[in-house]
Amino acid sequence: MERTIAVEEGLSDLKNLLEDRGYQVVGLKTNLPVDAAVVTGMDNNLMNQQNLVYEVPVVNAAGRNAGEVVEELERKLVH
Question: Is pTM beyond 0.90 here?
Answer without folding.
Answer: no
